[in-house]
User: Which sequence fits this backbone?
């Protein structure tokens, strides 16, 4: 059975592997189909394509920063995986550029707040960790804190200092999730709600929100993810069966920024083929 991992990050956003290294890591792990899904950017696509070994297939995608009603009268940050969309579509290109700007401003503001509180970090140091053109994120600040000896790991930095709602946290203006679903669809792509019930990360949406998005054009839901409990995986599978959503499984690989190995979770081949059949923005690339 082919190994299919539909959620992985490179140095084009907050991963530690270059796009070429990401492809090589996946190939060494026996991955047959890999999706590159950096945050709010398609900047790693060309390099990943160029590194594909013979026979390996690449799904070009991105993870969109979104905001959603939570189903309880509030709002919550969520992530939406977009696959095989046309990156030149005007709405997608403009929104990704805006989101990258939001990310840069947020990282500068959080770094400044920590420096003002006496932490040994500064903007120049943090941004030196970003490759040219990369989409900025909190993991870059976390890595600066590790380098400064403040914490031992990126995970510790998030748990103690950079979590949503911390004294140093700064929000950003994300895309309304329904608009993102429509935007990806209009660009010929398909959308999958990423780790929707990852409760360890903070507040999550009610299942009713996912069902409503299914009616608005959402294609699938990421079920098998390290941050989902067995109970929540079962809940999501049942919801998908009721609403016609496809189901995926993915590692959410970030290199050394997270401990999860590539292909720790994978997607069923039949579900992948059904997902592929619904997209017509850009083609699947085969090495």
Assistant:
């Amino acid at each position: 059975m082919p190994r299919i991992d539909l959620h992985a990050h490179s140095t084009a956003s907050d991963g530690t592997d270059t796009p070429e290294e990401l492809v090589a890591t996946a190939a060494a792990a026996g991955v047959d189909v890999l999706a590159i899904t950096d945050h709010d950017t398609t900047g790693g696509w060309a390099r990943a394509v160029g590194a594909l070994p013979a026979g390996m297939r690449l799904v070009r995608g991105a993870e969109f920063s979104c905001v959603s009603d939570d189903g309880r009268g509030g709002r919550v940050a969520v992530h939406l995986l977009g696959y095989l969309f046309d990156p030149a579509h005007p709405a997608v290109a403009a929104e990704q550029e805006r989101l990258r700007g939001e990310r840069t401003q947020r990282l500068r503001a959080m770094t400044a707040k920590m420096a003002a509180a006496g932490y040994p970090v500064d903007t120049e140091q943090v941004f030196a960790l970003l490759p040219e053109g990369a989409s900025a994120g909190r993991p870059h600040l976390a890595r600066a804190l590790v380098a400064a000896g403040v914490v031992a790991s990126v995970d510790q930095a998030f748990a103690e200092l950079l979590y949503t709602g911390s004294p140093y946290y700064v929000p950003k203006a994300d895309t309304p999730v329904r608009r993102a679903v429509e935007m990806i669809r209009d660009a010929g792509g398909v959308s999958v709600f990423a780790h929707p019930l990852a409760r360890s990360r903070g507040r999550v949406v009610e299942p009713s929100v996912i069902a409503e998005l299914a009616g608005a054009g959402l294609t699938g839901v990421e079920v098998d993810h390290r941050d989902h409990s067995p109970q929540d995986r079962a809940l999501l599978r049942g919801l998908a069966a009721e609403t016609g959503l496809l189901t995926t499984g993915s590692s959410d690989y970030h290199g050394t920024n997270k401990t999860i190995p590539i292909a720790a979770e994978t997607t069923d081949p039949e579900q992948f083929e059904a997902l592929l059949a619904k997209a017509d923005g850009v083609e699947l690339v085969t090495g």
In short: The chain has a mean pLDDT of 97. The radius of gyration is 18 Å. The domain at 102-162 is CATH 1.10.150.650 (DNA polymerase; domain 1). The longest helix spans residues 90-116.
